Amino acid sequence: MKRATTDPWLARYAFIGILVVFVVIFLLFPVSVVLYEALKGGLGFYFSALTATHSLTAIRLTLLVAVAVVPLNTLFGVCAAWAITHFRFCGKALLISLIEIPLWVSPVIGGLVFALIFGQKGWLGPWLDAHHIQILFAYPGIVLATAFVTFPFVARGLIPLMQAQGSAEEEAALTLGANGWQLFWRVTFPKIKWGILYGMILCNARAMGEFGAVSVVAGSVDDRITMPLQIEQYYLDFSLPDAFALASLLLLLSVVTLVIKIGLEWRHLAPNYVRPH
Amino acid sequence: MSVTVHNVSKRFEAFPALKDVSLEVQTGELLALLGPSGSGKTTLLRVIAGLEIPDAGQVTFAGEDVTEKSAYERRAGFVFQSYALFQHMTVFENIAFGLRVLPKKKRPDAAAIAKRVGELLGLIQLEGYEKRLPAQLSGGQRQRVALARALAIEPRVLLLDEPFGALDARVRKDLRRWLREFHDRTHLTSLFVTHDQDEAFELADRVVIFNEGRIQQIGLPAELRHHPTNDFVRAFLEV
Questions:
Q1: How far apart are CA A37 and CA A231, in angstroms?
Q2: Distance from CA of A260 to the nearest CA of B (A)
Q3: Average pLDDT of chain B, as a whole number
Q4: Residues in B touching A190 (Cβ below 8 Å)
Q5: By CA distance, what is B136's nearest residue in A?
Q6: What does the mean pLDDT of chain A come to?
Q7: Residue A267 touches chain B, beta carbons under 8 Å
Q8: Does A94 reside within a domain?
Q9: What's the pLDDT band for A75 if we cut at 50, 70, 90?
Q10: Alpha-carbon torsion angle A127, A130, A132, A133, nearest 10
């Protein structure tokens, strides 16, 4: 039977065809080029490119940044989602929108803000200089800029999840004599732990891949740049194989993130999902 | 234990949910709060439990002022309309929750908790269900688990919000009878909210009629039927 909403087969295939062409040109092709170029010189060359001093320091710095930023934004995200879903206060809708600022603002601006605050001619620059504290062009600056960019990731996922769950179970726990700590760990946390993990995975992927904000605050000194910046550096120095080798690592990170993300979504969205014992 | 409410008012933004409400619940009484939806009866129950802070007024438990005490200090047994069972915990863990969160000095050991939960499962006639999750129970069974969970902490007062609201007629009748028998045995001071006057009149010792945030009349079922004091009560009870 033909329904009114059924498009003619020609239109259907045309749309699907266009979609496939776009996915191939814009997603699959670049990804395969990265992998091809990275491995072109053979595995031996690939691993030597990855273990080159520049690559190793960039990988190390990127990991150190993620290790600081992900817990920081997880803590913030859980606190924000808790406050927004459990307390009544005015300006709540505005606050939810404000949390999302880093998603709409160009990351470069995020970086510039920190440059303005901590730079030599910035508000706190002279004071920091006098006390020999370096924030800009150093690890703290990179962490701050990355934290800015990845600020909403955990909160944004948790707020709708916790709003949907409501506060009924928390209220029940209160009347049963649970204090705030017991209430969070015994009642709220088990309900949101997968949501937290989901946000952390996305936050981590973004933190490791961030270029714009970090490029403003990172140093030009070699040991002060992260993986994405080092890839650019290799590219500018015409060391394309090294650039592709390092890029393939970031790509691997994306694939792992995607797999975990799909896994978590499948667990979350599966109807009548019951925790196995 | 007696519960009193003195001149309690509560607004939600512009909406006045309770206007200068005073009420005394005597020890061992089973009291119904009856009224149309939005009349403030659930808000009053939540104020008594400590889940809402009143804008003005006072709540006392056995003469002690508990207005400033939080819900977890008051430990009033509360049965929620939607049961609010902990979805990720088994029936056993749900019922044991109030015992497990006790301060270390007062917390019973594992054997004592198991014994207490076993007794409560017997009371609600759900022996053998301890390993089930709430999602694997029927509405009536969930309701009884919610009741057992509230009773596990040996509350001095039991508060029930539309306890039979979401159940089908047959299960509702059975549970109603069960609750009345339970109350006759234990004489636990209890308040329940309902919009169903048959339920209120059949179950309660005294009925409080609510409308627009105010108590309209308090009395024995027969008094209310025969001597309604105002037009609202008369119209609401259709006498």
A1: 13
A2: 22
A3: 93
A4: 88
A5: A274
A6: 88
A7: no
A8: yes
A9: very high
A10: 0
| A169 Cβ under 8 Å from any chain B Cβ | yes
Q: Sorting pLDDT into bands at 50, 70 and 90, what band is A272?
A: very low
CB pair distance less than 8 Å for A177 and B88: no
Task: Tell me, yes or no, whether A66 lies in a domain.
Answer: yes
A229 and A268 assigned to the same domain: yes
**Do A169 and B51 make contact, defined as CB atoms within 8 angstroms?**
no
Contact criterion met (CB below 8 Å) for B56 and B7: yes
pLDDT at A246: 93
Which residue in chain A is spatially nearest to B73 when comparing CA positions? A177
Alpha-carbon distance A269 to nearest alpha carbon in chain B (angstroms): 16
A:B CB pairs within 8 Å: 72
- The whole domain housing A212 covers 52-272
Number of domains into which chain A is organized: 2
Q: Do B80 and A177 touch (CB under 8 A)?
A: no
Could you tell me the two tokens for A3? 């329904």
| Per-residue pLDDT, A277 | 35
pLDDT per residue over A104-156, tens digit each? 999 999 899 898 888 888 888 888 888 888 888 888 999 999 999 999 999 99
Task: Give the domain CATH number at A212.
Answer: 1.10.3720.10
* B interface residues, A as partner, C-beta within 8 Å: 49-51, 70-72, 74-78, 80, 82, 84-88, 97-98, 100-102, 133, 135-136, 149-150, 152-153
In a domain, A44, yes or no: no
Shared domain check, A264 and A141: yes
Domain check: are A67 and A32 in the same one? no
Residue A184 belongs to a domain: yes
Same domain, A256 and A179: yes
Distance between CA atoms of residues B31 and B185, nearest Å: 16
**Is A229 found in the same domain as A104?**
yes
* Chain B residues close to A171, C-beta within 8 Å: 51, 71, 78, 80, 84
